[in-house]
Amino acid sequence: MARVPRGGRPKFTAAWLGRHLTQLLPDLTDRPLCVAFSGGADSTALLAALAKLKRPALTVRAVHVDHHLQPASARWSAHCRRMARRLGFALQVRNIQVACARGESLEAAARQARYAALAAALREGEVLLTAHHADDQLETVLLQLLRGAGIAGIAAMPAVAPFARTVLVRPLLERAGAELRDWLRGQGIPWVEDDSNADERLERNYLRARVLPPVRARWPGAAASVARTARHAAEAQRLLAALGAADAAQAAVGSALSAPVLRRLSVERRRNALRHWISTAGFLAPPTRRLQEITGALLAARPDTRPFVAWQGVRLQREQDLLVLRAEPSPAERANAPPPHTAARNRPLSWRWQQQHTVALPHGVLTLRREARGPLDLDALAPRLTLRGRRGGERLRPVRGGPRRALKGLLQEARIPVEARAGLPLLFAGERLLAVADLWLDESVQAGPASQHRGRLIWRAAH
């Protein structure tokens, strides 16, 4: 029987972790586990507790990501190798370089690079375990509130979430960081401290060092209460997502949305439907101000105007009574676009997309951009594809599990002008139609939760 301290909650032990993991992953013994191991107290406690589980059928290994952002990173990697050997686990070290885009925080860039490295390191069928705990959840919710996040942001980190080709599990969200460190001390297990955790210029560190100590002194149960709030928010977000999906489907005209249908919704439901439509397309949701422009002035504009709203590489344009969503090519993509081909429109063009990301055609430029949230599964593409124009009779399955549709019907539903249809590039693998410009993807190449490498097609018609 688990030891239950005063207050009624079992202490953190290896046995508790085993029971909790089984609740989160009923098929635990059939799933190999991969632990994201930084060498800090939290991930050390997770890995050490797994080592103490007496389950021979359990397969566990660890991955350490070296960002090379700190002078001591090589020592941390060496410590992780020693600790993994001591605990009896194999360890893989992934060395990465963090590229920080203009206007992006180093924290965000490092986090994105780290998860990309972890996704690349996972083997077939492995479940990724991270050591996020209740204090991390508290910090995340408060930071989201301070940034003005909506329900999705306040829902913070779920215990189980889709990730790359598998799922990500956070089994320690119910435990406090102090519990984990106390357990490690009792086991005589060392860990490393990241010097950057003392840098209060970073938002999370400032919150941890200056804001949360008096909060916890006044409200000792703050972490548990806020975690409960996050769970309530997650439930509300699931309901909003279902409503947004239904409203967006009602307004859908091909890959576009009908402005008149959206105008019949309340302002709140318009915003919710648009957020769902935009995120489902693999784009970042617009900032609040841009969303207000879309649901207000853009929807109210006359049909003979072509207003648009743009943000972070995305362009949402009003074309008559339709809202059309497109990716904006970066300045580098525009600068590197090759000159147009002089070949006839319907002459097939072979495209080695891995070597040449941008191809110029008689009627515009097509770019394939690697993108972490993109709707296109790059692993489903053959190295050599074929581009050509319409000949008639083309069909594809644009909705996963739905019927095959005639391209002619899709173009009519989406109200693509007749003069624009002839210039749309069609992407083929052999005789199979994979994509129509950046409007539709066949289900065979659509990215899903298990997709490891994603991208996006961007079509810019010549004017």
Description:
The structure is a single chain. The chain has 463 residues and is of the alpha+beta class. The protein has 3 domains: 14-229, 3-Layer(aba) Sandwich (Rossmann fold); 254-327, Up-down Bundle (Chorismate Mutase Domain, subunit A); 332-461, no CATH class. Helices cover 38% and strands 20% of the residues. The protein is built from 15 helices and 22 strands. The protein has helices at 14-24, 41-52, 73-87, 106-121, 134-146, 151-154, 177-187, 203-218, 222-251, 259-263, 267-280, 288-300, 331-335, 407-413, 418-421, and strands at residues 33-36, 60-66, 91-95, 127-129, 160-163, 166-169, 252-253, 256-258, 308-311, 314-319, 322-327, 349-351, 358-361, 364-370, 376-377, 385-388, 395-396, 405-406, 426-429, 432-436, 440-441, 454-461. It has a 6-stranded mixed beta sheet, with helices on both faces. Helix 2 (41-52) links the parallel strand 1 and strand 2. It starts with 13 loop residues before the first helix and ends with a strand.
Relevant terms:
463 residues; alpha+beta; Rossmann fold; Chorismate Mutase Domain, subunit A; 3 domains; 6-stranded mixed β-sheet; 5-stranded antiparallel β-sheet; 15 helices
